[in-house]
Structures are given as structure tokens and as C-alpha cells.
Design goal:
381 residues, alpha+beta, two-stranded antiparallel sheet, 13 strands
Length: 381
Amino acid sequence: MLVTTGLCAPVAFAEKYASIVIDADTHEVLHARNADDARYPASLTKVMTLYMLFDALEAGEVTLDERLMVSRFAASQAPSNLKLRPNSSITVSDAIGALVTKSANDVAVVVAERLGRTETRFAQLMTIKAQSLGLENTRFVNASGLPDSRQVSTARDLAILAEAMFDNHGESYHYFSRPRFSWAGKTYKNHNELLETVDGVDGIKTGYTRASGFNLMTSAERDGHRIIAIMLGGSTSKSRNAHVAALVEAAFHTYEIPDDPADPGRNIEMAFSAFGSAAPDPNAAAEPMINGQRLSVATAASAINFKTLPAPVPGPVPELAPEADEEEAEEILVADAGPIAEQEFEQGDATPTSFEGATVVIPAGRPAFSVSEYEARQSAQ
């Protein structure tokens, strides 16, 4: 089933679609559809990874010129990646650029292992931090957004994260407007095309997996007003971009419509009237699906408890994703994982200084596979 609006062609799959637009200054919700329904964040996960890295920079735990070592596990991550080699290194500054523009999964793990000793444990720390920021319905199990039925969030939670990034790390927010990043003789363009096409847009991140659809977290400022817009579940990057651009324009249009004291909120209703049919049943969209299984079924065994963060039971392995359109095909996050071959990748339980006192449960490591195994499997498709 496809979702349609009065402004453009079909933009999203109903079982994946969610959106929210907020005024970042007043925290008023200007528009919301399925904003509290569980969805897969895909590479929007990296915004949380970067938030943690900016925390560490601010605390003096790392510096921009520090070189981060690349483990075999990090180097084995599926595309999108920088094809980092084991025992090589990358500076923190370059890691930030790679995460923002290239959305590199190997770099996400490099950062995770530096800050949390293991990616699994870092994901637990990510969830703890997310909870402290008010992301009540979000759980992370990896640092990249690679497909995992246990890693879920909501449009509202992701809007809170975007706002927290701007409010708490405003001095680092400029990284999200970086148009390109160069590494090893190659230049990678930022996937967020709204940076160049929509007035006022200055961040922040795109994402895509087969299970999530095309996601976009955007922030824009005009005439002293800042808004944050989240859309999840787009059917293509082009339709997603058009839909979010329309949401941004509608949001700024609310400031141009005079308030009516007799009918508060009428200006917002008028500005967003074209989005009234954003979903066939906005309050009852189907759950996200993974391998033909509803999210609630796929995650029933792990019974998420955000207060105690118990060790989860691994969910089903997601399918290989098909080719996507344009450059965003690089954000198809493949997780055709085989048996765990390198248990040492997930050892270690030391707590970074900024998380002293936090209770962290370290679950079993998730499957890893080598680049050669991944490429062989791709060739067999």
C-alpha cells in the first residue's frame, strides 16, 4: 500500500511511513503522522553515534587529531564504508566527515570501539544517553544503523535527538552541512540533497534500509525561526526529498499566516492542510516489516525493557537489500551475517569515564562477516 499526498506522487509505504515537524524554539508540534509508532532508524542511528563522539570531544576524552585504530571487526562492516583496513587508523576529524557524508559503517564501529571498547557495549551506552535525552521509545544495538529488528525508534524521538544535537552541540552542528568529504583520493557527496535545494536547510542526515525505507532528518532556519522535520519510510529518495521539502515549506508558511485569537492553531491547520491524507489511517499504520514478519513478532523474544536493558535475543537476519536509486544506493545496509567467527571482537567491559556509575548489560556479540565473504555473497545474487 502506498501513501499519497496532494502535493506529489506516492512517497512512502504505509507500514513504514511516519513524520513529524516541530518548532525548535517553542517545541510546538506543527505536524505529526504516526510519530510515536516504532520504526527502523537506519543510518539516522549515526546521529546518535556522532552525539556521543561530540560528548567525548567536549569532555576532552578525545581530540580531533587523535588517530582511531581500525579493528578487524570494524573493517569487516558491510557498505556503505571507506574500506578501511585492519590495523590502519583514521583521525576523529575524518571520522566525523565520513559519518556525515559517506555514512560509513566501518567508521561508525571504529568510533564505537574507541568510546565503548566494543560496538555492542557502545550501543548500550547510546541507549542510556538516548533515554537521558528523552528518547523514551528508542533502542540501539549497533552504532551504524545496519538492519536489526531490535533497533527501533520513532519520528518523535528522532526529532528530540535532532533538537538535542543542535542545543547541546551547536558548535559541532556545522559538520552536518558539509557538502562533501575526501578520503584516499575519492570525494564523497553529502546524501542530503535538501542542503542545496531548500532555502534554510543546514543539516542533518539521511538513511535507508529495505526495512526502513528512505529516511530523512532535516533542520532549517529562516527569519529567526528554526524547524526540525523527520520523515521515515519513503519509497524513493526523490519522493522522500520532495515530501520533506513540502513539510519544511508548510512549516515556515505557518509563520506567515496571522494568528486568530478566536481559533488558536488555525494557521498551522491551514499550512499543513495538504498533508491531511498523509496516511490512509494516520493513527493505525501497519507495523514495520522485516523478512515478512511484523516488528512485534520479530522482537517478541527479546521483550524490550528500556529501564533494565536486558541482554536481547538476536532477531532474524535481514534480507539483502536491492539496488536503490542514485547515490543513496550506498546506504543500503547489508546484513547477511554468517556465524560469529571472531568472538574477541565483542570482549571488554570497561566503562568510559563519562559514563561512570551507569549500569550496562553486555549482550552476546552480533554476527560478523568479512568483506570477502560479503563480496562473494553479492556476486552469487
